[in-house]
Amino acid sequence: MIRDEWRKELRKSMTAKERMAIKRVVMPMExxxxxxxxxxxxxxxxxxxxxxxxxxxxxxxxxxPCIQGCPVGVDIPxxxxxxxxxDFLKSAQVIKQSNLFPAICGRVCPQEVQxxxxxxxxxxxxxxxxxxxxxxxxxxxxxRESGTTYIPEIGKISQVKVAVVGSGPAGIAAAGDLARYGxxxxxxxxxxxxxxxxxxxxxxxxxxxxxIEFEIDNLKKIGVKFYTNIIIGKTLSHDDLKESGYKAxxxxxxxxxxxxxxxxxxxxxxxxxxxxYLTRINLMGAAKQDYDTPVFYGRNVxxxxxxxxxxxxxxxxxxLGAERAMIIYRRSFNEMPARKxxxxxxxxxxxxxxxxxxxxxxxxxxxxxxxxIKLRRMELGEPDASGRCRPVPLKDSEYSLQADMVIVSIGVxxxxxxxxxxxxxxxxxxxxxxxxxxxxxxxxxxxxAGGDIVRGGATVIxxxxxxRKAAFAIHRYLSGI
Amino acid sequence: MNKVIAKENLGKNVVRFEIEAPLISRKRQPGxxxxxxxxxxxxxxxxxxxxxxxxxxxxxLIVQIVGVSSHKIAxxxxxxxxxxxxxxxxxxxxxEKVGTVLCAGGGVGIAPLLPIAEAFHEAGxxxxxxxxARTKELVILEKEMRAFSDELLxxxxxxxxxxxxxxxxxxxxxIRRETIHKAVTIGPAIMMKYTSLLxxxxxxxxxxxxxxxxxxxxxxxxxxRVTVAGQRKFACIDGPExxxxxxxxxxxxxxxxxxxxxxxxxxxxFLKGKVAN
Lengths: 481, 277
Ligand SMILES: Cc1cc2nc3c(=O)[nH]c(=O)nc-3n(C[C@H](O)[C@H](O)[C@H](O)COP(=O)(O)OP(=O)(O)OC[C@H]3O[C@@H](n4cnc5c(N)ncnc54)[C@H](O)[C@@H]3O)c2cc1C
Ligand SMILES: Cc1cc2nc3c(=O)[nH]c(=O)nc-3n(C[C@H](O)[C@H](O)[C@H](O)COP(=O)(O)OP(=O)(O)OC[C@H]3O[C@@H](n4cnc5c(N)ncnc54)[C@H](O)[C@@H]3O)c2cc1C
Ligand code: SF4
Ligand code: SF4
Ligand code: FES
What we know:
The complex is a heterodimer of chains A (481) and B (277). With 481 residues, chain A is of the alpha/beta class. Chain A folds into 3 domains: 5-146, Alpha-helical ferredoxin (Fumarate Reductase Iron-sulfur Protein, Chain B, domain 2), CATH 1.10.1060.10; 161-256 and 414-479, FAD/NAD(P)-binding domain; 258-411, FAD/NAD(P)-binding domain (3-Layer(bba) Sandwich). Helices cover 37% and strands 17% of the residues of chain A. A 5-stranded parallel beta sheet of chain A has the order 3-2-1-4-16. A 5-stranded parallel beta sheet of chain A has the order 6-14-7-8-9. In chain A, strand 7 (300-304), helix 17 (308-319) and strand 8 form a beta-alpha-beta unit. In chain A, helix 4 (48-57) crosses helix 6 (76-84) and helix 7 (88-98) crosses helix 11. Chain B has 277 residues and is α/β, with parallel strands linked by helices. Chain B has a 7-stranded mixed beta sheet, sandwiched between helices. In chain B, strands 1-2-5-4-3-6 form a 6-stranded antiparallel beta sheet. In chain B, strands 13-14 form a two-stranded antiparallel sheet. Chain B folds into 2 domains: 2-89, Translation factors (Elongation Factor Tu (Ef-tu), domain 3), CATH 2.40.30; 100-256, Nucleotide-binding domain of ferredoxin-NADP reductase (FNR) module (Rossmann fold, 3-Layer(aba) Sandwich), CATH 3.40.50. The mean pLDDT of chain B is 91. In chain B, helix 3 runs parallel beside helix 4, helix 5 runs parallel beside helix 6 (189-201) and helix 6 (189-201) packs antiparallel against helix 8. Chain B has helices spanning 22-27, 68-74, 110-122, 142-148, 167-177, 189-201, 235-238, 249-256, 260-276; strands spanning 4-9, 14-20, 33-37, 45-53, 58-64, 84-89, 100-106, 126-133, 151-156, 163-164, 182-186, 206-209, 225-228, 231-234, 241-243. Bound molecules: flavin-adenine dinucleotide (2 copies), iron/sulfur cluster (2 copies) and FE2/S2 (inorganic) cluster (FES). One flavin-adenine dinucleotide binds at residues 33, 43, 45-48, 62-64, 66-70, 108, 111-112, 211-214, 240, 256-257, 260, 263, 267 of chain B.
C-alpha cells in the first residue's frame, strides 16, 4: 500500500514499542450518582490531548484487520493517523466516505464485536484494542462543534424522484447517498418525529437528540425532503407515489411489533414492552413535568432480556427513581447481546443482574396491577443454532420476587405495515422482506429494502450500510449504469 | 395542514370537528381511526373518523372531553390547527348485506358507531339502533343516527329520555321481536361486555370496536394489546373491531384503568393551570 509522505513520517516519529507502551484511554464519564439525577450523556467524549494520544497507539498496520470488522469498511487507520497529525477535519472526511453519521456510530456501534475486536492489539497482542469508537466520536463531535461541517458534494442534479420509507438509520443513510447522486429524495415517516429507533428507542443518555437533529438538518441542506405523520400503505400507497412520479423506493421500515413470552399474567397492568416504555419516555416526554403522556414509576422494576433495549429500559427505570432495577436474563453475562459498555454502565448505576433466571408467571393485586413475578432458575446446556449455550430450566427451582413494573424486552418482529399492503412483495416466513444479496433489491421492480425490515433486528451501522448499498443499486437501476 | 374548518357542540362535553386532512380523507373507510396530537408536548390519542369529504379534503371527528388531551382538542377554534394527525389507521369494518343489523351504542361509542351504521345502511341492511347513556344530556348524535336507522330506541339510566333502563334491556326487546342477523356494539368496555354476553345468548354474530390505550397506532408499542379467542392481538393493526364473543372484556377493563390515577392527576393539574392563567 502506498502511503503519503506525511504518514510515513508520522509512522517513523515513534517506535512500535513506544506506541504499544501507551495505555488505552479511559472515556471521561459522568459520575454514576449524578447520572441518575438526569438524562445527561454518560460518556463525555475525549479531549484533544486524549484523542491524539490514543491515536498514537494505532500501529497503522499494513493490512489493517480492523477494517474487516467494520460492516461499512471505514478506513480506520487513515482517519486515526489524521487525528495523530492533528488534522481532525480531514479525519472526519475520511470516515464520512464510508460512514455518513460517525457521531452516531461512534456512540452506539458494538465496537467490541466489530472493528475493535479485529484490532491487532486485541486479536494478536493480547492487549486492549485501539479505542476506534471513541476516536470516531471524537472527530465527529469536533467537526460538528467546529461549525465547518463537511457537506459532501452533490452529483449532477437529476429530476428523478426516489421515495424512502422510514427515517431510521437505514432510511437516512439511503437518503443521504441518493441526494448525493443527485436524485430528488423524499423520506416518509409514520411517527411525528424523525430518526426511527435513534429517536424513540435509544435514550438521550446514550445518544442526545441534538445529534440526530444535526444530522437530519444536514440532509435537509442537501435537498432531502422529510414528511412526518405519513404511513406508506395507509396514508399513501406505493401506487400513489408512483403516480406522483417516484421511480424507485427504499423501504427502511424497521422492526416494530414487540414480542411477548406468552406466559400467564403478561397482560397485567404495569407490564409493557420495552418499545412502549422507551417510546413514552423518549418520544413522548412522559417523564417531563409538562408533557401530557403518563408513565409508571416502578419501585421494583424487572426488565426481561439482555440486549441493548433491555439495558436502555433498566437504566431509564433507575433514572426514574426505581429502588431496585433488575435485569432478568436466562443465560449468563457471556451470552448477553448488549454492548459491553452499556452492561458496565448499568452495573455502575446499581442495576441488579439476575442472570440464569426466567419468568414463568406474573401475579397481580386486586386492581390488576402486577405485584410479583414467579421465576425459575436456569443452567447452560449445549450450544444452540445461534452458537450460544442453550438455557435449561433447573428442576424445582421456582421462586417469586416483588415487582410493580415489568418491561418485556425479548425482541421484535418486522414491521408488518408494508407487507400487509403490498401482498406482491415477497417476505420470509418470519416477515422480513426478501432481498437479493448486495443489491438489496426486493422482488417488485424498483423496490429496495434494508435495515431491520430485512435483517429482523440488527445494528445501526448494519442498517446504514444496507441503506447505502441500496442507494447505490437504485442509482445503477435509474441511471442504467 | 390539519386546519379546523368547522366546529359544533353536540351536547355536554361532546364536540364535532371538521378538519383538513386531504390525504386521509381519500383513503378513509368506515371503521378507520386517526391518531392526533395537540402541541409539541401533547399526547397521541386515537379518534374515530366519523365522516369524510374527499372532495373538500376534510375528515370529521367527534370528541368527548374526558381528560387532558380530549379537553385540549375540544378547545381548538376554527382556523387553528391540530399539530399532528396520522391515519387512516386500523382495519376497516367488513360491510356486507346480511339483513337486519342491530347497532348498540353507548356514550361516546356512538361516534365510532355512526359511520358503521351508515355503511351497513348503504349496503342495503335494515338498521335498528339502540343508543344509551346515563342521562339525557349524554345522548349524542341521535339525529344523525336516526338518518340511517329504520328504527331507533334511546335508553337512559335515569329515564330522562326514551326508556329507563340498561342498553341490554332495549336490545333484548328487539331481539325477541325480530330476527337480528348481526350486531355491532361500541361503547364503554363494561357496556360491550354485557351487550356481547346478551347477543351470545341469542347466537347473533357481533362485532365490538375496542377503545384500548394506544400510542403509535402502527403496531410498534404493544400498549393496545387485547386477548381475543385466547390470542394476543394488537387493536391498532389487527382491530379495532373484533368478534365480540371472543374478546376478553375483563382484561380490557383492567388495562383501560391502568393509568387512571396518573391521568386524573394530570387533568387536575391541567384544570388548575387553566384557572390560574
Ligand atoms: C432500545 C434500542 C437500543 C438499541 N441500541 C443499539 C445500539 O446501541 N447499537 C446498535 O448498533 N443498535 C442498537 N439497536 C438496534 C438498532 O437501533 C436498529 O437495528 C436500527 O435502528 C434499525 O434501523 P432501521 O432504519 O432499519 O429501522 P428503525 O430505526 O426501526 O426505523 C424505521 C422507521 O420507519 C418508520 N416506518 C415504519 N413503517 C413505516 C411506513 N409504513 N411508512 C412510513 N414510515 C414507516 C418507523 O416509524 C421508524 O421510524 C437498538 C434498538 C433499540 C430498540
Ligand atoms: C380506536 C379508538 C377510537 C376512538 N374513537 C374515539 C372517538 O371517536 N371519540 C372520542 O371521544 N374518543 C374516542 N376514543 C377514546 C379516546 O381515545 C380517549 O377518550 C382519549 O384517549 C382520552 O384522552 P384524555 O387525555 O382526554 O383522557 P385521559 O386522561 O387519557 O383519560 C381520562 C379517562 O378516560 C379513560 N380513558 C382513557 N383512554 C380511554 C380510551 N381509549 N377509551 C375509553 N376511556 C379511556 C381513562 O381511564 C380515564 O378515566 C377512541 C379510542 C380508540 C382506541
Ligand atoms: S462504523 Fe462502527 S464498526 Fe465501523 S469503524 Fe466506526 S465504530 Fe467501528
Ligand atoms: S488493527 Fe488496530 S492498530 Fe492496526 S490499524 Fe487497525 S486500529 Fe490501528
Ligand atoms: S398502539 Fe402501539 S402497538 Fe397498537
